[in-house]
Amino acid sequence: MFLLRLFKIIRIVFAFGLDEFILGHERVRGLERLVKLVLFWRRLDAPRAVRLRRAMEKLGPIFVKFGQVLSTRRDLLPADLADELARLQDRVPPFDSDLAAQIIQQSLGKMPEQLFRRFDTKPIASASVAQVHYAEMHDGRRVAVKVLRPGIRPIIEQDLALLGVMAWLVEKLFADGKRLKPREVVAEFDRYLHDELDLQREAANASQLRRNFLNSPMLLVPEVFWDYSSRDVMVLEWMDGTPISQIDKLRADGIDLKKLSRFGVEIFFTQVFRDGFFHADMHPGNIFVAADNRYIALDFGIVGSLADEDRRYLAINFLAFFQRDYKRVATAHIESGWVPKETRVADLEAAIRTVCEPIFDRPISEISLGQILLRLFETSRRFNVEIQPQLVLLQKTLLNIEGLGRQLDPELDLWQTAMPFLERWMNEQVGWRALLRQIKREAPYWAETLPALPRAIATLADPVRQDRLLEASERLAQVQRQRNEWLAVIAGLLTALLIVLAFVLR
What we know:
Blueprint: H1 2-15, H2 19-23, H3 32-38, H4 48-59, H5 61-70, H6 79-85, H7 97-108, H8 112-115, E1 118-119, E2 125-126, E3 130-136, E4 142-148, H9 152-173, H10 177-180, H11 182-196, H12 199-212, E5 219-220, E6 233-237, E7 242-243, H13 247-252, H14 257-275, E8 277-279, E9 287-289, E10 295-297, E11 303-305, H15 308-322, H16 326-336, H17 345-356, H18 369-382, H19 392-408, H20 414-429, H21 432-449, H22 453-460, H23 463-504
Parallel strand pairs: 5-10
Antiparallel strand pairs: 1-3, 2-3, 3-4, 4-6, 7-9, 8-11, 9-10
Helix pairs in contact: 4-5, 4-6, 9-11, 14-19, 14-20, 15-16, 15-20, 16-17, 17-18
């Protein structure tokens, strides 16, 4: 099955002319004429970005999802490709309602008609991983029943393995490969997809987000019905609202769009900096608006989380950026390790100023965060900035916020809306209050480890133990050398296979 899928992918690659992305590389450029000779019958009548999007759609839902994630990596893709991939839609035909009923019975022990007073067999939404049915509990409460698509796990595992091979080739073939960390990006995508395959985990994400925003005047999150949820089935409170994309209806219903746009910015910064836990799939299809002017969040399969250190450096960068303190932005990048230590602060400061200065004092209608990110990534190549995989979802979410802001209030001042929140958050992170919180958090650990500290120091000073550690380090280095030799052999074999396939496939 794996080889059949590989051959199908290669056939689609050549059918849509995607070989130009590979054959343009200097190491295999000599094959370009040969491929054109073998595939003389092929006619390519669309730009490369359109062909790439169509190929992703042809390859199936997993590649569509990966294309959506890839569209946010403007450090990895040219602008035309990123813009086109952003148009990918995760929509697939629903699966049979009898299969949905079987999955519910296998997961929850009863058929839908026993569990619910009403269960609509026709789904109200269908995507690559699951579909959603409307239902009513026996006590009259309305719910949404999400059912995992049957047979999806082996397909995903197969495609993820192939994406891993492709990422490895990109890392080996291209000069920017190691800096862009394509294998880490695929690993992150792997983790998000596996999270989506476990509806119990998605339910936990929804429960956490609901707890974070309980009684919030800005955001509604549906309640999880844990007794009716499993790995393959999830039951959530039904939420009535208007899709965020229906601007005319929102206006007709008396929704305050300016207030809503400000809420969007504050919700984003609250999730990122206060909680370190954020909804990372905030496209218009997953956001509704309630009659009381609050957002309704749906679909919690993809969430992001940030460590305390990441949040601190992000806040420093945002605040310095809003204050136009480009030197502090530059030094924060160096301190965090995102930029090599030997980088000259003045050079990095000048480059950041060139990108950012033109955008201030403008409404969001005249600003493209996507364009800013593109310019910043161009700068990152020059200064060998290491792309942080844990921030990819954050970037994707920020771009979604930009899109919502443009729809709801083109005059929204993103900077003025975000600045007070960030200043409050930073004030809580420094000073004596932050010190007391840190001492309180670490006190149990200190109580446990301090008494054992003298013994640990004595153990480390033991000459016999030091010799053993040195021997173990040498053995590890030898294993690493052998691994690198095998990787070189595998790379040669894969390259040879692709050359042979270029001859025989059409």
